[in-house]
Specification:
Elements lengths: L14 H10 L6 H14 L5 H13 L6 H19 L16 H22 L8 H13 L10 H25 L16
Length: 197
């Protein structure tokens, strides 16, 4: 199932390649936005074949227009990688975000962009999110608060710890949405992300 599609590296390490391809195609989106929207579509339960997920993503990132071949190939790989990581916990899903060498404010901004794009992606596929189970609605509400987070943060250990906590919450929230809306999974264990109130 995974075969040649599984990337040897985490999606974060593909960011430079994706950024270069987006710039070459003159698409003014950051790689984290593309990954967030893609994961949002998947976690919303988009049909998992190219005809199901490609068009909604193109609507979000390029006004419905086709992408250059190189960029489309990168996004196909990213899609396959995200599905693999979301559906099999052994592969460890995480949002695509800049590495720790980047400034804290840049990483906070990237998380906010990722979450905004994730919420947009999931809302397109699940327009009746307000009818989802209560725990899912609470998690979506918490994510919408993360999307509004302030970028101007102090470069200190406390802020770093808070960012790590938000990243972990976001990761678990995505897995929870995938478990709720994605294809049926054999494992019946509920995912508890804890609510941030």
């Amino acid at each position: 199932m995974i075969g040649k599609y599984l990337m040897a590296s985490l999606p974060t390490l593909q960011m430079d390649k994706l950024l270069a391809a987006l710039n070459a195609a003159e698409i003014g989106q950051h790689p984290v936005e593309v990954h967030g929207a893609l994961v949002g579509l998947i976690c919303g339960g988009v049909e998992q074949k190219p005809s199901g997920w490609t068009q909604p993503l193109l609507e979000l990132m390029n006004d419905g227009q086709a992408l250059p071949k190189e960029l489309q190939t990168l996004i196909d790989d990213l899609y396959q990688d995200a599905v693999t990581r979301l559906s099999d916990t052994d592969f460890g899903f995480s949002p695509m975000l800049p590495q720790e060498e980047e400034s804290l404010s840049k990483r906070v901004e990237a998380l906010s962009l990722w979450v905004q794009s994730f919420l947009t992606g999931i809302a397109i596929i699940q327009p009746k999110l307000n009818q989802a189970p209560l725990d899912v609605r609470e998690v979506i509400q918490d994510l919408s608060e993360i999307a509004q987070v302030e970028f101007d943060v102090a470069e200190d250990e406390e802020s770093e710890a808070a960012l790590i906590e938000l990243m972990e919450f976001t990761r678990m929230a995505a897995l929870m949405c995938y478990a709720e809306f994605g294809p049926a999974i054999d494992d019946d264990e509920p995912i508890d992300v804890g609510v941030m109130h």
